[in-house]
Amino acid sequence: SGVFVAIGLEPQNQMFASMVRLDPAGYIVAGEDCKTNLAGVYVAGDTRTKKVRQLVTAAADGAVAATEAAQYCATM
Length: 76
Description:
Layout: H1 55-74
């Protein structure tokens, strides 16, 4: 048996609403590639749309977003 503790599921993304698209719940819309609707802007962790919100998935998002951003910068 075990316990998984989660503290809060209410995103605080309204400050970004004029820049990137938010879903109805307030999460920043981005796919598994962490790309937003704004070219060159990526989102990682629990702030983006996703099914699983755990530390390990947030860390993985960081790696994906960093890789995607580096590739984007390399094309500039």
